[in-house]
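Researcher: Can you fold this with 3-isopropylmalic acid in place?
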Amino acid sequence: MATFDILVLPGDGIGPEVTAEGVRALEAIGQRFEHVFRFSEDHVGGAAIDAYGVPIRPETLEEAKRSDAVLWGAVGLPKYDNDPSAPVRPEQGLLQLRRDLNLWANLRPVRTEPALTHASTLKPEVIEGVDILVIRELTSGIYFGEPRERRMVDGRREAVNTMYYNEDEVARVAHLGFRAARQRRGKLTSVDKANVLQVSQLWREVVTEVAREYPDVELEHLIVDAATMHLIRRPRDFDVIIAGNLFGDILTDEASMLTGSLGMLPSASLTEPREDGTSLGMYEPIHGSAPDIAGKGIANPLAMVLSAALLLRHSCGLEEEAQALERAVARTIEDGLRTADLASGDERALSTREMADAVLERIGG
Ligand code: IPM
Ligand code: MG
């Protein structure tokens, strides 16, 4: 019987509602497979600004480092969106956690569920069978490069951000991408803007060098603008995609629409693997805080439940348990159960809790 310490950071909007279901999913797995998950919880994002005046406390970051994994809900509130220059913002908590824990590898799997192909705005015949793993670099690039500031020069406002990568940062993402491709369909697409940016020319050069160690993997380089086009034109051609922080951010929102619902997509943010192959990681649905539906109990909990499955796989080394949870989610969808974001026509929409209950009933069933 193994014991795991999980730090739960529900955050804002629908974060707390869906996070509660992620915790229940882990508890159910713990019961069935005889593991103990010990949970501790704290505020982040807007909730932490309200409670402590900062979007994440230093104590919380320390606690995260001591944990086996972090389960993250969502951050962001409309009151901050209307003021882009607010000195403290909920999103800073997220960026600080990524950076402080060195969570450089962001895995965003995008798979279309056969039963949901009609839910996408794209044609079913284009998105059927899509199965892509996007690996986004998460702790460097333009998100963190220096200088980054707003300033006054000759009485005029200016601002600067810097897109920075060094070869080690690129190489580790490339290795991860090639290794993942090897275990999947053997194709890696690297996305950059090498026709314009020096930083992308370095990116492409390093990826090409790393590729020599993986002759069995087919490597394709795509310029980011073309990549956005091919992603909706021929999404089935993609297997593993690697991209820098900003390009990965943009491409994964686009890729999420291949599945029809943002409410289905989990993510894992990992640091260097330990000896046993597991990593300290942070797990979050990619849907965000959705303040418009917060507090109504109607949010889709499946992205969070699938994030909990990734937590089992990557931070606990519990592959069988991760698959049990993923199968339970797939069966729930196949059985026609839907939350409001997925329901069409006369389908009854389940509440967040009912949908999660349906998944729990199907664990191991
Ligand atoms: C994401 C989000 C974040 C990002 C925001 C909330 C800071 O868009 O995780 O994709 O830009 O990385
Ligand atoms: Mg994003």
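Model: Folded with 3-isopropylmalic acid in place. The CA atoms of residues 43 and 67 lie 16 Å apart.
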